[in-house]
Amino acid sequence: MTDIARLVHNVDQQGFAELDKIGLNGQRDQGLVCTLISRDLSGSDDLCVSWGRILPGQHHLCHHHPDASEFYVVISGTPLVHLGDTEYRARPGDGIYIPRGTRHGLTNDGDTAVDLVVGVSKPADWQFVPDE
User: Fold this and answer.
1) Is the pTM of this model over 0.70?
2) Can you point out the beta strands (E) in the chain?
3) For the range 79-88, what are the long-range contacts, defined as Cβ-Cβ under 8 Å and sequence gap of 24 or more?
């Protein structure tokens, strides 16, 4: 029998948590995350998927993952995406692939929240290496 309670999770029921990473100069990572698929939550052995929210004025620290690739799908807002040595103005509907080891981060310099789906190619325990 399929365990729907383990396989299906809703952002409104799970709720958001504040990002908890620290940058190279002691600055706090900013934004909210709600994990929807992971090893612990869903039994996934190959990916982690979350709903991210970056509020106006917040900055998700530039960092990289030496052991995992990542993607963003922008649902709402127009964040400034820091990707390698480039900055890109994203818009709703953009899918952004971040290869393993690539420096990346987000800045919400707009007036509305940025919502995005975030996926990582490991179910848990990937490394977050701050680059700022």
Assistant:
1) yes
2) 17-18, 32-37, 48-54, 59-64, 70-76, 80-83, 86-89, 95-98, 104-107, 114-120, 129-130
3) 79/54, 79/106, 79/107, 79/108, 79/109, 79/110, 79/114, 79/116, 80/106, 80/107, 80/108, 80/109, 81/105, 81/106, 82/106, 82/107
Please give the Cα distance from 110 to 79 (Å, whole number).
7
User: How is residue 10 written in tokens?
Assistant: 């809703």
Cβ–Cβ < 8 Å for 32, 106: no
* Strands, sheet with 17-18, edge to edge from the N-terminal-most edge strand: 17-18, 32-37, 48-54, 114-120, 70-76, 95-98
Domains and CATH numbers, the chain: 14-130 (2.60.120.10)
pLDDT, tens digit, for every residue of 78-120?
Answer: 999 999 999 999 999 999 999 999 999 999 999 999 999 999 9
